[in-house]
Amino acid sequence: MQRYSGFGLVKHALRHHEDWQRQWRNPTPKPRYDVIIVGGGGHGLATAYYLAKEHGITNVAVLEKGWLGGGNTARNTTIVRSNYLWDESAALYEHAMKHWEGLSQELNYNVMFSQRGVLNLGHTLQDMRDIQRRVNANRLNGIDGEVLDAEGVQSLVPIMDCSKRARYPVMGASWQPRAGVARHDAVAWGYARAADALGVDLLQNTEVTGFKIRDGQIQGVHTNRGDIESKTVGCVTAGNSSVLASMAGLNLPLESHPLQALVSEPLKPVLDTVVMSNHVHGYISQSDKGDLVIGAGIDGYNGYGQRGSYPTVEHTLQAIVEMFPIFSRVRMNRQWGGIVDTCPDACPILSKTKVKGLYFNCGWGTGGFKATPGSGHVFAASLAKGEMHPIAAPFSIDRFHSGALIDEHGAAGVAH
Amino acid sequence: MFHIYCPYCEELREEEEFHPKGQAHIARPEEPDACSDEEWGDYLFFRDNPRGIHHEMWLHAVGCRKFFNITRNTVSYEILETYKMGEQPTVGAEHLAREEKTSSVQAAEGGQQTVGASDAALASVKGAQA
Ligand SMILES: Cc1cc2nc3c(=O)[nH]c(=O)nc-3n(C[C@H](O)[C@H](O)[C@H](O)COP(=O)(O)OP(=O)(O)OC[C@H]3O[C@@H](n4cnc5c(N)ncnc54)[C@H](O)[C@@H]3O)c2cc1C
Ligand SMILES: [Zn+2]
Questions:
Q1: Which atom belonging to ligand 1 lies closest to the Cα atom of A46?
Q2: What segments bear the compositional bias annotation Polar residues (chain B) (predicted)?
């Protein structure tokens, strides 16, 4: 692998950028692998990377029906934070946060992780009580957090309407300074390049159409490019996980919903942090290019079309303009949707299944981008050892029968 | 934007008047106390999540405030029929086919089957779009 550096950039500039190495190979599928990962989003690619890097398992394939990172990884609003309420989820997302903090160096790829802080606004007394409880829980788990009043919020974000005139006045917020944003594409590409360098085969345009199962043990997958064998298969397919599960005769407690986002025309820098509001429901940050990155809520109906309803976009922009009257005449450039796999307790599923050797990593719903490195790390360990990693173990699918839910609905600010 | 035909109001109205309420035709177990954890968990949390035909409950929230059912394609978002509570769909979904395997349930591809509403309404329901 050709390493990237400032010096290398100068060298390549002198050669008119004509001899950059391809970031990854485009191999033909082998007949068998030690591990197959289905889904080439950030989570799948990270899993493959850590399998090779930390567990020495390099005979691994990532099967992606489209292009790498073209699913929700490429469609999200890139908010990264770890201020979740419950111990189990706090451990998982903080595990990811620790990886984020060294990720660009680890992958030799600039993922543009920017710890510009995240505000979760409170607009009612109950919001504020929940915020206090959550920040206290976070601190007990060693996660940074502060409770701010309206003045504190105003001094961080001068352009926001924190006055009493607002229809839903801002009463305060939780503030996680270590939170922030990262460049989604770079995360997928960085993991892909590093995994490829360790020998992982990244197979694009390769759609899994069925599973080979014998005596309750996974034997491999059927794909549009032929059958591929493996005794360990991890499905990391986000909004399509129910479809994959049904191919194996399994049912998951998931619903697939469209979730939309938009970006505006580029503006001069006006917003140097991330603002989220559960109550008026909108979240916003400004990218380094200057465009406002705005996220909506899910459409309430099930949907697999990567688009959503216009009223949802309209509501979101109402919320944004309510918080930031200054943006009322900003024009939106693009709008799109992804298919998110929502789980009843708003927590992911990292789990074995009734089929031996077949694992699922899904249910991240509207908020899994932030978990990408941590999810890949613990899922890889689970696949390598055949036992769920201690951080992943509480997220077993069994919880929907045992009742040991991890209810992050509403508990974790906005669910993104 | 969906245009949804409410079988009670017998009118085509805009999506914003309605709330989707998830999978339809889920019967509460007659005796919850007699359920195993498995059965109770399945009832509470596990849903069909098909890529294709889906029967779902909707609420005409700012209209007649009644619940009713929609059969919809979750990929094209086409609404194939709407029908009242207590009625059965005429366009089949996978789960009904699996559970009942009766001839009355048809597999639908293009949504050419008849729908529960009147013929006049049928034409407009077919024009429903996302
Ligand atoms: C609009 C929007 C905003 C969001 N905002 C945030 C946010 O601010 N912060 C945050 O933390 N999270 C956010 N999320 C959620 C986040 O994007 C996801 O949880 C996360 O990216 C999931 O990553 P993944 O790798 O599991 O899935 P994906 O990136 O979706 O990858 C799954 C891959 O599986 C492939 N696949 C599916 N079926 C098959 C098959 N049969 N065979 C082969 N391949 C298959 C797909 O093509 C896809 O590439 C947002 C999501 C959306 C849509
Ligand atoms: Zn009505």
A1: 25
A2: 103-116
